[in-house]
Amino acid sequence: MGRVERSRTVVFDLGEVLVSSGAVLPRLAAEVGVSADEFAAAYWPGRLTYDLGGSAEAYWTGVVRALGRAPEPGLLRRLTDMDSTKWSTLPPASADLLAHVRGSGVRLGVLSNAPGPLAAAVRAAPWSADVGHLVFSAEVELVKPDPEIYAHADAVYGTEPGDVVFFDDKPENVEAARAHGWSAHVWEGPDAAIATLDR
Predict the structure, then answer these.
(1) What percentage of the chain has pLDDT greater than the value 90?
(2) Cβ–Cβ under 8 Å, residues 160 and 123
(3) What is the value of pTM for the model shown?
(4) Which residues of the chain does CATH 3.40.50.1000 include?
């Protein structure tokens, strides 16, 4: 466990790392009455603006209109709440991973492109109490792979770039983190992450 012992902070992305979209999008699609593929085609195009702090109402109005549905306030609220709840609910494998890393004596962090309602849901989730620092794009109005978000995260974590080990599913985010000076790795699952940290 030498690498973990030397590293001050291990940081994880949220979406497609700690939580898979497979646990989220099918349930949202069912709420609207469309297939998961149809829903995904409407879900992702406007997400960047939402992740930068855009309003939930504007985002979900765009999604449901793209799916041919009327943006009824009740539906928009349900989708906002469901999206935030599903993305902030850790599967057992991720909970075990965080417990393993925390047991190694290092600090945990999360750095995620995430909208405001999701950021609030993660902060309210019991598991996040064990994560020392949470940085969400909507709260800082920066998104990965913007170099500034990694510098901001260091300021929040109280780390120098060489102190951080980072896992993200998107290669462009990993490359930007490496350029900043973090030891960054493309996510390949909990077992691979533990193996990387054990090395």
Answers:
(1) 92
(2) no
(3) 0.94
(4) 2-19+90-198
